[in-house]
Each structure stands twice: as C-alpha cells, then as structure tokens.
C-alpha cells in the first residue's frame, strides 16, 4: 500500500475531484518524489515491505534502515546458516538488532526482516502530505509555473496557499522562500520542507540515533 493510502486524497489536495484521474501519473510521480525526499531526510525507509541488509557481527547493535521491525520477522544468516537472535535482543519499535555475544568476531551476516509503517502514524502522515503540497506547488509542469526553473531565482515574489501549510511567499523559480523562521510555515535552507513538517520529522529522525528519542 502506498504511503498516501488512496490517491483520491492527493487528487483533492491539488484541487481535483476525488474521482478525477486525469493527473494520476503526475500525482504518483510527485508522491514518489515526496517519499524519497522524506526518507533521505530521515535516513530511514518508511513503507512496509520485506527487506534485507548486511552487517558484521558481533557489533553491539545494528540499526536497520526500514523501521519499525515487524515482530518475529527477523532471520539472520551467515554462510547459509541461521544465527539465533533471541527476541529480547531486538528493539522492534526503533529497528535495532543487538548482536548475540556468542557470535564469532568479524562474521558477515545477512539480516532479513519485514519493516515499515502501515499505516503511517497521523503526525508523520501530516508531515508527508505537507511536503507533497510543497513538492507539487514548486515543480514546473505540476503545480509550479511552467517554464520557470526551481534552481534560479527570478526576483519575482509569488504568494502560494498550500493545503496543510498555509501561505508561503516564494521567489518564483527558486526553491528558497522569502523567510525561514521556525513555526512560520516557510521553506528552509535544507529544501522545500516546511519548518512545521521538519519539527515533526525530527522527532522520528531521532530514532535513527542510538540512545536518543
């Protein structure tokens, strides 16, 4: 299931009727861009699916990229042999696997698991929808002004109303907003994600740091 659950929700956000499929290809592309943007910022993977990674054991802990981990879904193998990992050594919510102490040093292991959110927590979904609004509004050919490059400023200020974000003053053709104050619903130097959305994302981002959160 895609992160936005039902494409009708995104159609409505860009001003279409929920059953108007005329721009579905563009909407899906914008949604994929939004997901990549958010996952890059978090340095984690969000959508629920089976995944695998390689790790060297017995490091004290291994942070998987796709989280949270689905309970009882982890299989760790090395040279085709299963390495037993008691459930008490897995933090499912944070996506951390702690190595068994008895594993020999320098063992390369394949960690297979199911991870991700389904559905997204409401706060994370709000942040992603706010980012989608910004991606759509600032991309020429989608919601942006055709013919304008998002990398070069024109000096022309344009006021845009974004659903879930508010009014944003933009230099048309630039991804930089006119101001970037915390809580002001404007874009930041990191990109076009609003400060309000970043405040929410940073709470999830801290789960990518061992011992934080």
Give a written overview of the molecule.
- The protein has helices spanning 7-13, 24-42, 122-137, 195-205; strands spanning 49-57, 61-63, 75-78, 81-83, 90-91, 96-98, 107-115, 157-162, 166-171, 187-188, 191-194.
- The chain is of the alpha+beta class and 213 residues long.
- It has two domains: 7-44 and 121-204, no CATH class; 49-115, no CATH class.
- The strands form four sheets. Strands 1-7-3-4 form a four-stranded antiparallel beta sheet, with no helix packed on it.
- Strand 3 and strand 4 form a beta hairpin.
- Helix 2 (24-42) crosses helix 3 (122-137) and helix 3 (122-137) crosses helix 4.
- The longest helix is centred in the first third of the chain and has 19 residues, at 24-42.
- The two termini are 27 Å apart.
Keywords:
single chain; 213 residues; alpha+beta; 4-stranded antiparallel sheet; 3-stranded antiparallel sheet; 11 strands
The major sheet is characterized as: 4 strands, antiparallel
Beta-strand portion reads 15-25%
> Helix share of residues?
10-25%
Cα separation of the termini: 27 Å
The strands making up the biggest β-sheet line up spatially as 1-7-3-4
Number of strands: 11
Discrete helix count: 4
Number of separate domains: 2
CA-atom Rg in angstroms: 21 Å
Mean pLDDT, rounded to whole units? 79
Structural class: alpha+beta
Overall form:
elongated
Low-pLDDT stretches are: 150-158, 170-187
Order of helices and strands: HHEEEEEEEHEEEEH
Record the SSE blueprint.
Blueprint: H1 7-13, H2 24-42, E1 49-57, E2 61-63, E3 75-78, E4 81-83, E5 90-91, E6 96-98, E7 107-115, H3 122-137, E8 157-162, E9 166-171, E10 187-188, E11 191-194, H4 195-205
Antiparallel strand pairs: 1-7, 2-6, 3-4, 3-7, 5-6, 8-9, 10-11
Helix pairs in contact: 2-3, 3-4
């Amino acid at each position: 299931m895609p992160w936005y659950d039902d494409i009708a929700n995104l159609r409505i956000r860009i001003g279409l009727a929920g059953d108007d499929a005329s721009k579905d290809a563009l909407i899906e592309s914008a949604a994929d861009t939004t997901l990549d943007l958010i996952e890059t910022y978090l340095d984690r993977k969000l959508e629920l699916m089976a995944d695998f990674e390689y790790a060297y054991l017995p490091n004290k802990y291994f942070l998987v990229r796709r989280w949270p981990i689905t309970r009882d879904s982890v299989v760790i193998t090395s040279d085709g042999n299963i390495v037993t990992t008691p459930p008490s050594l897995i933090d499912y919510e944070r996506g951390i696997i702690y190595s068994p102490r008895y594993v020999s040093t320098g063992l390369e292991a394949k960690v297979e698991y199911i991870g991700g959110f389904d559905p997204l927590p409401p706060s994370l979904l709000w942040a992603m929808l706010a980012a989608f609004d910004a991606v759509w509004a600032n991309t020429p050919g989608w919601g942006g002004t055709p013919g304008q490059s998002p990398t070069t400023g024109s000096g022309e200020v344009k006021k845009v109303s974004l659903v879930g974000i508010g009014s944003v003053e933009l230099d048309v053709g630039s991804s930089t907003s006119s101001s970037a104050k915390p809580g002001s619903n404007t874009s930041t130097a990191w990109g076009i994600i609003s400060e309000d959305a970043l405040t929410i994302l940073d709470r999830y981002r801290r789960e990518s740091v061992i011992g934080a959160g």
